[in-house]
Structures are given as structure tokens and as C-alpha cells.
């Protein structure tokens, strides 16, 4: 049978070793790499329907995988005004004023990417935006997607006139007089206003998601670990695949909230393994805390404002029981844990679940375990942790899922940013310990958390290497935590495959592995750190099918 894809005159870079293979050609059949060898033998495998590409000495590596992103919910969230490039309140106000002038009467204004650093040392509140939102129903997501600012009119339409109690760690922030400031912390509080705001149609969300995923493929991504299945996102993936418009391989972890009951857990277990050819439900996403910037992280000692002193789960013991139940059912988990207390509690819970399974023997099969039958759990973010916590990841087999661009874009080496001021010098000095975790034996998986930070994988890898903003305008934050070029590449290839339990079929250039490939103009291991993000992506393939091809190829 002829090959589906033949790549010629290539340099083949295997992320597992960091070496160029002694071959110049690759062929793929039925979605897998079927041949590695020389050009002449590869040409003989081509038939009339084979895609043949002469790469003229450019570099092929295993497809880059984003270890943490939100494709569909992010596509919807980013349909509003983009505030991610605003660096002060004046520019925020100007962007909102322009958008407000273009609104139809009564229409809502949505925005996203608002950086709390623009407020300086002042409280994050709608009043700081001035009169630009007077009479306008507006809901603006802060960059972390864990908080939002609602205008006075939006609060009025939602019937919000004071504080409320929630079954999770959420808050409608109010002033000393009990009046809402507009700041909504965490999902339950944000959803009160979102419930009355208009939503885009299914067709609009699907079209926007297709646009985003196509751009991701053009950036070099061949896959991603999608950390939500909210709303109709699974239906969006199914529809896109049916239209042959799904250019990434996606592993999806639906959320488990603190209010989930036994029936909800049973449904999460049932969903495991469902999906299509390129998308599959595999794992469950949980939250142990919120964010440092909001004062909703869970720290072992409160932050400098006296906040971040409790878990997202009102009863952390319930979280521990849920982890045990999912582990016993063979379901891997990914838990958002930013603060040191949150990370510690996740690791404690995993350790207890593993010990209980060892005593009782085995796990159930839910389609989430890896090929060895091991249930692999993950911790997402890990922004500040002490040494003893760093050392626990490897023995427990827990992956450390890190987003280095969060450190690069939202914190500063001199600790003048909001995140660092809240934590104080000691905890801010142990920021995003990628290198320490790696050297302690943990599998460090790299991702963007898009739409929180930009998704181009070369920018993520560059951030892991230089620890500076994308424009290189500031000194590195914690340069001792920088990864090597090979470690950064492995964080988006072999480590991502390991965390998914797919190291026997993904993340390497080897016969039998998936033909998910990223082709770059130069060897990413030899490109200087500051130039990596601009390295041209020439070709991406998923299962041997071309999903992006630059004009020059």
C-alpha cells in the first residue's frame, strides 16, 4: 500500500535524544510513521495519492503538544475586546471607550485579557475604569480567567446588589458598605452575571473555534491537552471533525467541581475514552485553589493582604475522597494548584489514593490509564512551592504541568508586579520552579493555558529558556529556573506524551509512532533563546495529514 505522506531531504530531530537521526526521509501510512531512511527508498513508497514534500534540509521533529489549553471556551472568551496588550489604565479605558461607541443600544460589551498590574497598587474595581462604562452592560475577564469586572449596569441586570454565599471558593467583592465593586472572583461569582449576558450562537462558536485551531496548527501545534469540556465543547469538536476541520489531536479533561455528587462522578467516569479519531475524553480537571493575583490561591501562610488562605473546595477532605474514587476507577486527574498549600494537598491526596490501591489491588479500567496500566496524575501551574514539595513529584509519578509564559509576561524580576507583591520576597523568589522540578526527576509538561497567555509553542519554549517577556524588554525572572533547549523541546513532546500515557506511540520520531510532525526552518536546539519564538514553522501534520503548509514549502 502506498504511503500517505513522504517527507524528503529533511533533517530528522528526535526529541528523545536531542540528536539528528541518520536519515533524510520519513514516510507515514495510516496515521503512523512507517519508514525512516533515505530519499530514494522513501520515493519508492509514494503512490498517486501520496503527499510528497521536499523539505530542502529543514528540520522535522515530533509534533509539538500544548500541555494545557482551552480551545473552545477560549475561542468564545476571546470574541470580545482584546485588552491583553494594555499596560496601563489609560489604554484600557481607550480600548473600552472605542468598543462602547460601536455597540448597538442595549448591547453588552465583553472584554478579555485585562492584566491586574494596570491598576498598580489600587484595588481592582470597575470604578477605576472611569465613566467609559456608564450605562453599558459590560463583563470583562481578567487575564487569569478566574475573575471578571462587571459594570454597574451588568450587576443591575443580574440582580447583584451585595455579597452572596457560594458552594465553592467564589466571591462577589463588596466595599465596606456592602456594595459590589464589580470584581467577581472565581466561577460561581462570574456565572451570576454571565447567566444574563447574551451568548454567541453555536455556529459562531464553532466558526471561531475553527479559526483558532487553524492558527494553532500554523504555529506548529499538532496537539493539546484541553482542560475543560464546558458547555457544548464536545459537540464542537465532533462537528469540526465531521467537517474535516479539526487540525489538532486533543485530549480533553472535563471539570469536576466541589459540588459534584456521586452521579456526577459516575458520569465523568463514563465519559472516559469517548470521542472521535482526533479528540478523546481522557482524565478529569479539578481546582484546588484560584490565583495569587486575586487573593484566591491556597497558601500555607496568607499573602501580604491577608488573603489566599483557604482552598477552592470548602472541604478539602472531600477533594481527597474524589481523587481516591477517580484513581480507583482508573481515571487520571489534572488539578489546578497554584499555591504551596494547594500543591501539597494534591500530592497528599494522590499519595493516599495510591497507597489505598496498593492495599486493595489494581484499578478499574476507564479508558484513562496509560498502556502500562498506571494512572498518571498531574498538577497544573505550581507557581510557588518549597523544596520538600518539589522533591515529591517524581516518587509519586505526578507530572508537573507548567506555563512559563505566565512568569514571563505577568511577573517581574524586581518583584514590583501584583503577583510578587502579594506573595512577598521569599515566596516570589521561588517562582515557577521548572528547572528544580526537572532536576528532581519530575516530568515537566509545558503549555500556554491559552487564552491566559499566547499559544504559539515556540514562544512557550522560548519563555522556558529565557524567562523574559516575549519582547525581551525586561530582565529574566529567576534565570536559574530556565530550561535547556532540549528540556524545553521535551516539555512539549516526550513529557506531554508521558503525561498522557502515550509514550509508546507519541512524542518521538520512530517507526510506529504517530505521524504528528512539526517542521521548522532551523534546528530549535541551536537557535538562540531570544530568536526561537520567530523561527518559521513550515509544515505541520497530524496523523500524516497536512494541517498547515507555509507558502515556501
Outline of this structure?
The chain is α/β, with parallel strands linked by helices.
Q: What would the principal axes of the Cα set say about the shape?
A: globular
Q: Which blocks of ≥5 consecutive residues have pLDDT under 50?
A: 364-369
Q: What is the multimeric organization of the chains shown?
A: single chain
* Portion in beta strands: 15-25%
Largest beta sheet: strand ordering: 3-2-7-23-24-25
Instruction: Report mean pLDDT, rounded to a whole number.
Output: 95
N/C terminus separation: 26 Å
Number of distinct beta strands:
25
Rg (CA only):
23 Å
**Helix content estimate:** 25-40%
- The number of helical elements comes to 19
Structural class: alpha/beta
Instruction: Please describe the biggest sheet, giving its number of strands, its sense, and whether it closes into a barrel.
Output: 6 strands, mixed
Q: What do you see in this structure?
A:
This protein has 553 residues and is of the alpha/beta class. Helices cover 30% and strands 20% of the residues. The protein contains 19 helices and 25 strands. The strands form 5 sheets. It has a 6-stranded mixed beta sheet, covered by helices on one side. It has a 6-stranded mixed beta sheet with strand order 9-10-11-12-14-13, sandwiched between helices. The protein has a 5-stranded parallel beta sheet with strand order 18-19-20-21-22. Strand 18 (284-287), helix 9 and strand 19 (333-337) form a beta-alpha-beta unit. Helix 2 packs across helix 6 (202-218) and helix 9 (316-328) crosses helix 10. The two termini are 26 Å apart. Residues 364-369 have low confidence and may be disordered.
